[in-house]
Design the sequence.
């Protein structure tokens, strides 16, 4: 059996359930990239099993802390367990994350469902080798019309893997329609952001819908209109939707149309949100801030935090007294505390008092191991600005 011996002391976080072994923790390696290895402490005692890669800074991604066979049955069981967790979402939405990487104890693998189609991400060589087997298991457990692969080229590159995007099985249309309750969304699963839709914002869409009656809403970084459509559906008086991507805004327009919502109440602006907020003179009752990640590495974090302070400050200035701000952060490297700190700082520097109404994380189809805070990338706050 392939194995990796850890340096003395390095086993502690792994024994506590952290699912990553860093390259610097390894004393000796008897394995090649993509193999399942036994993780042993410096005395050779068993700790866990995982997928190994010599080029990745995360050299081993743990699959199990038990001495069990890592075979087809193992993966089928893990996938079934993950699917079981999503049963409460059936009937509520036809778009959900079915497998969420480490959070479902399947590092390197994510599977999203968009109606009759699946989107998969395969980010490690260990999982890449299992592609055919995984497709077989999915065929046994689910019915679908097609599978599209949307692996992140940058992440794969770290393991020396080439980019991998395109149809894997069946025929996949470019745009797929999904249903969330009584709302329809068109999702560009081939070329859209992430795997096409922000599944992690499902509950916040409902929140926005419930908060929008009669309100003037500003949806910043609106993408294809998850929030704009929800606000209109909730009876918003007017929604201004701002994004820098034409393609996203075109799909937003379509999403307003397919839901038979009043198009004249939706004002679409192609702009940089920072520039827009600096130039805007309007006041709003509800503002949504859902920017892209601001940092890709630890070094970029201070700059990212400054970005959050500035963005939130600009938005707070545009709120009426008593107006609401839903502010989100999907930068994995910025912690919950750092993000909340930035938002409070924005309140101070804009001279506004803040009332915290709600804190949010991603919904139940995005489980995170408590021993893996790195997986908990999404945080949001709902505030009332006095
Ligand atoms: N709120 C959306 C998801 C936002 S994703 C939803 O719930 O579906 C982030 C979006 O920000 C993308 O659509 C991207 O085009 C846009 N974006 C990135 N930087 C921007 C900027 N500086 N100004 C405006 N839009 C930007």
Sequence:
């Amino acid at each position: 059996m392939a194995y990796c011996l850890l340096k003395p002391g390095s086993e502690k976080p792994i024994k506590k359930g952290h699912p990553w072994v860093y390259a610097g923790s390894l004393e000796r390696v008897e394995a090649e990239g993509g193999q399942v290895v036994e993780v042993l402490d410096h005395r050779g005692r068993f700790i866990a099993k995982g997928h190994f890669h010599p080029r990745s800074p995360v050299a081993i991604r743990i699959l199990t802390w038990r001495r069990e066979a890592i075979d087809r049955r193992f993966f089928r069981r893990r996938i079934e367990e993950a699917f079981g967790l999503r049963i409460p979402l059936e009937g509520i939405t036809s778009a959900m994350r079915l497998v969420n990487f480490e959070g479902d104890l399947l590092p390197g693998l994510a599977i999203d469902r968009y109606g009759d189609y699946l989107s998969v991400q395969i980010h490690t060589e260990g999982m890449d080798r299992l592609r055919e087997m995984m497709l077989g298991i999915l065929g046994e457990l689910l019915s679908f019309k097609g599978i599209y692969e949307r692996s992140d080229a940058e992440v794969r590159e770290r393991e020396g893997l080439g980019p991998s995007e395109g149809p894997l099985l069946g025929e996949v249309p470019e745009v797929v329609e999904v249903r969330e309750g009584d709302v329809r969304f068109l999702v560009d699963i081939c070329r859209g952001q992430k795997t096409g839709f922000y599944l992690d914002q499902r509950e916040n869409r409902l929140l926005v819908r419930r908060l929008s009656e009669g309100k003037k809403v500003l949806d910043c970084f609106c993408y294809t209109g998850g929030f704009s459509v929800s606000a209109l559906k909730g009876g918003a008086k007017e929604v201004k939707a701002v994004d820098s991507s034409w393609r996203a805004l075109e799909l937003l327009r379509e999403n307003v149309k397919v839901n038979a919502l009043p198009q004249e109440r939706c004002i679409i602006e192609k702009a940089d949100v920072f520039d827009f907020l600096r130039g805007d003179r309007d006041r709003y009752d509800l503002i949504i801030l859902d920017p892209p990640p601001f940092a890709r590495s630890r070094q970029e974090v201070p700059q990212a935090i400054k970005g959050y302070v500035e963005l939130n400050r600009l938005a707070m200035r545009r709120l009426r007294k008593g107006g609401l701000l839903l502010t989100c952060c999907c930068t994995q490297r910025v912690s919950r505390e750092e993000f909340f700190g930035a938002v409070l700082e924005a309140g101070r520097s804009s001279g506004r008092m803040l009332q915290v109404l709600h804190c949010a994380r991603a919904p139940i189809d995005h489980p995170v191991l408590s021993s893996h805070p790195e997986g908990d990338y999404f945080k949001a706050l709902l505030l009332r600005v006095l």
Remarks:
- The chain has eleven helices and 20 strands.
